[in-house]
Amino acid sequence: MIDTGYALAGALAGFVVGLTGVGGGALMTPILLIFFGVSPNTAIATDLWFAAITKLVGATVHYSNGNVDWQVAKRLWLGSIPMALLIVFTVSLGAQFAKANWLMKTVGVVVLITAVGLLVAPKLVAFARDRRIDQPERFIALQPTLTVLSGSVLGLCVALTSVGAGALGSVMLLYLYPLRMTPHRLVATDIVHAIPLVVVAGLGYLFAGMVDGKMLSSLLAGSLPTVLLGSILAGKISGRWIQVFLALVLGAAGVKVLM
User: Fold this and answer.
1) pLDDT digits (tens, 9 = 90+) for 71-128
2) What pLDDT shows up at residue 98?
3) Is the pLDDT of residue 183 over 70?
4) pLDDT value at position 82?
5) pTM over cut 0.85
6) Where are the domains of the chain?
7) What is the mean pLDDT of residues 34-59?
8) How far is the C-alpha of 163 from the C-alpha of 189, rounded, in Å?
9) What is the pLDDT of residue 238?
10) Angle at the Cα of 55 from the Cα atoms of 210 and 115, rounded to 5 degrees
11) CA 177, CA 74: separation in Å to the nearest integer?
12) Surface-to-core class of residue 236, CB atoms within 10 Å of its CB (0-12 exposed, 13-18 middle, 19+ buried)
């Protein structure tokens, strides 16, 4: 039985993910916490699998358009996958890690950081572009190491809160690759990187029995059609105005979660 409320929430998040690469965790987890009153551990566990399946469907469109930067994705995976595995191992030991009292606040803080990152992304890109042009050799030499470190941060955030793979990841990529990451390549690479990351991060929660299968089915019923629509439109329109609106919504959601 499909729950209409969850399906509508999934449809909204799916469209935003397809269009911008952002929203699988940053948008869905606060929605589940604030509007549906889902417990933090269940919201995070279910959202990880929601994001994995939704982004997998959206990635097919971006992949077919040849927009994925595989070198950058592999560098991110070198940092994010091992970190996520570490968290998975910790969760699988007894699932007490995911029941900590500070989990709700951690989600709120990461969502707020995500919102700020989305708002200041253009200024970060301008700063990084100047450095890239003024000191090209030094900037390029540091890119691989900084990308792996960024992946580690994303792996930690995603495994703990389910937030960050898309929103924080896109901001990091814009800063690290200001000339290389065109808008369409950014969305495609961000989505493709997130898929194995959220699957790995979600395994510990799945084995611990925290994933709500019925909720997940309803969320996917809404998201799968709209993520395809968003992915198709991503090659035709700019998602910047949606990112700004999303940042404002996430800022309010982060404050609400913290309160």
Assistant:
1) 999 999 999 999 999 988 876 665 555 455 577 788 888 888 888 888 888 888 888 8
2) 47
3) yes
4) 96
5) yes
6) 4-258
7) 92
8) 17
9) 65
10) 80
11) 14
12) exposed
What b-and-e string marks burial along 192-213, b requiring 16 or more CB atoms within 10 Å of the CB? bbbbbbbbbbbbbbbebebbbe
Looking at residue 53, its pLDDT comes to: 95
Q: Residue 71: what pLDDT?
A: 96
DSSP track, the chain: ---HHHHHHHHHHHHHHHHHS--TTTTHHHHHHHTS---HHHHHHHHHHHHHHHHHHHHHHHHHTT---HHHHHHHHHHHHHHHHHHHHHHHTTS-GGG-TTHHHHHHHHHHHHHHHHHHHHHHHHHHHHHHHHSHHHHHHHHHHHHHHHHHHHHHHHHHHS--TTHHHHHHHHHH-TTT--HHHHHHHHHHHHHHHHHHHHHHHHHTT---HHHHHHHHHHHHHHHHHHHHHHTTS--HHHHHHHHHHHHHHHHHHH-
Q: Which residues contact 42 (CB under 8 A, 6 or more apart)?
A: 32, 210, 211, 212, 215
pLDDT at 51 over 70: yes
How far apart are alpha carbons 204 and 83 in whole angstroms? 13
Asked if residues 169 and 194 have their Cβ atoms less than 8 Å apart, the reply is: yes
Hey, what are 134's tokens?
A: 């003024």
What would the two tokens of residue 239 be? Answer: 């998602």
